[in-house]
Amino acid sequence: MMTVPPAPAPPAPVRLAMVGGGPGAFIGPVHRMAAELDRKVELVAGAFSRDSGRSRAAGAAWGLDPARCHSDYRALFAAEATRPDGAELVAIVTPNATHFAIASAALEAGFHVLSDKPATATLDEAIALRTLAARAHAHYGLTFTYTGYPLVRRMRELVAQGAIGGVRKVVVDYTQGWLWRPLEAEQDQKQAGWRTDPGQAGLGGCVADIGVHAFNLAEYVAGLSVTDLCADLSSIVPGRTLDDDCNVLLRFANGAPGVLHASQVATGARNGLMLKVWGETGGLIWRHEASEELVLERPGEPTATYHAGEASAGLASPRLPAGHPQGFIEAFANIYSDFAAGVRAGVPSPDVPGIAEGVRSMAFIAKALESARAREWRALTED
Description:
Elements: E1 14-20, H1 27-36, E2 41-47, H2 52-61, H3 73-81, E3 89-93, H4 99-108, E4 112-115, H5 123-135, E5 140-142, H6 150-160, E6 167-175, H7 190-195, H8 198-201, H9 206-222, E7 226-234, E8 245-252, E9 257-263, E10 272-279, E11 283-287, E12 293-297, E13 304-307, H10 328-345, H11 355-374, E14 378-379
Parallel strand pairs: 1-2, 1-3, 3-4, 4-5, 6-9
Antiparallel strand pairs: 6-10, 7-8, 7-14, 8-9, 10-11, 11-12, 12-13
Helix pairs in contact: 1-10, 4-5, 5-11, 9-11
């Protein structure tokens, strides 16, 4: 009788410490749910709030040891570095202006880092972080969430395979309406408050909050770098310092034109991200609010629709059979799962945006602001 060898034990979950994400946060709980969805990552500690009581309360809600819940990320790193079961990975889910300091401290302490976007508050900080990440014995990644969607990955694959021929034009549109009025002036509006405050958000408002998502998605799927841009950034709501509406013309490395529109004052809009890529022989369209479908159009042929989970959709990290909705948490979880697999393998995952994309996105913000002030085209360089 043949003896079947036992299946190898799965790798132990990567132990996670989170900075930020305490009471009142939006993206922190999303990170936690996504991180633990596949059991490849386990939250063990954190500095969830600068208020020690609120930090412990957040940890208690997630079943953590109060002794591992801190009010300062430096104390968190020092304590976890001395434990045999200490955290290995740090998730950064704080306002933009703090990303550089926290990521730098985490990398210098030997932790892997997975940061919310943008990587930093300025381009100079991003370049400095790139240098630090290059010499650190740790992985660095960014949660550009939409790159985790199965059909976004399939879209990128189809473009790379030449399914629509050479890229001719790229249009990316990201409309939200939640800041249509001065929400930041109201009490208990934490999200609006820091996102419209230059001291916490950095130099850009809408362009840094959702414009970088649109920019990253365009380059990710098209497989081309943007070389030049011409931006018109507006602060439409009276009294608002940072931009809340962005209109940017793009030029890609192959000469193809592009258009990027991002707005947080599109009254009534929810989270209307859409990407269109047209090539020599056809076009591809993906919409976030219909994320289970990817449309391929060719002249003289019936429209083809790929559905997440179907064999025809190819690769792309599907979690459920076709017809069963997969969404934001699952896309986030794909990024965490891929990052954790890279940590355990000792090789960064090619599917998770890293510091190179972080620098690119900060260069996009910086050059868009320059272009808007000068009202002229700017080369998208990293200087």
